[in-house]
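Contributing new complexes? Match this layout with S-adenosylmethionine.
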Amino acid sequence: MKRRIEPEWLDDLPADDPRAVRSRRDLRRVNWWMGHPATMAQTLREACPREAPARVVDLGAGDGDFCARVAQRLAPGWRNVTAVLLDRQSTVHGEVPQRLAAGGWQVEVVVADVFQWLQQADRSGPAVFVANLFLHHFGSEQLAGLFEAVAARGALLVACEPRRGLWPLACAGLLGLIGCNAVTRHDAAASVRAGFAGRELSALWPAPGWQLHEGRAGLFSHLFVARKDGACP
Ligand SMILES: C[S@@+](CC[C@H](N)C(=O)[O-])C[C@H]1O[C@@H](n2cnc3c(N)ncnc32)[C@H](O)[C@@H]1O
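Output block (do not edit by hand):
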């Protein structure tokens, strides 16, 4: 399947449009079905087995529920972490800071375009970057630029994305059965067509001195891990 990037409805709807609100709620369920919070937490724990990082930056964090679930799974080992929830829409759900605080995490909400923010973000203290259902929004050139900025500022990037293929596409067509609305159903199919396969993301990673892992995860997903040599020992 050739990769095809097309606009997703959730990205264009106003944040408070009822269809968008409902679709962000659907995404919580989709993430559960895809097993992404568990995959992310396990990958982070394996990458940083001894000590929690000081900062975890969630790129395209949406309503923040994904990050809160990951933090919950990492408790009680990971405490005193600052979660930077970055999204170009102001959509972090009111309950999320409390949920993160319950696990000993602080929250910083950033409403900005990822590319602009990465250009300005300070380089002090290597951060861990996570991305869930986010990288597939971008073409190869944009991804290469994003990776370059992340590699200059981070020690680890973990991304859970849709796997591009007929089986995930067929399953995306069934999301109505678990109550997902038209926005979610449209965006899920678009996301699979824009998703990844093989080692497409590794091929775009710019920096030497990083260990890369990329491949299938679960039934529908594609996992990408870039870890700086010697980081998170
Ligand atoms: C499919 S949603 C995933 C949200 C969240 N990660 C989750 O798992 O629920 C993609 C998110 O990326 C955000 N987004 C898209 N393009 C962006 C950009 N250029 N900069 C920052 N956020 C962006 C959208 O606003 C949206 O919240």
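Reviewers usually confirm one structural detail per submission. For this one: The chain has a mean pLDDT of 95.
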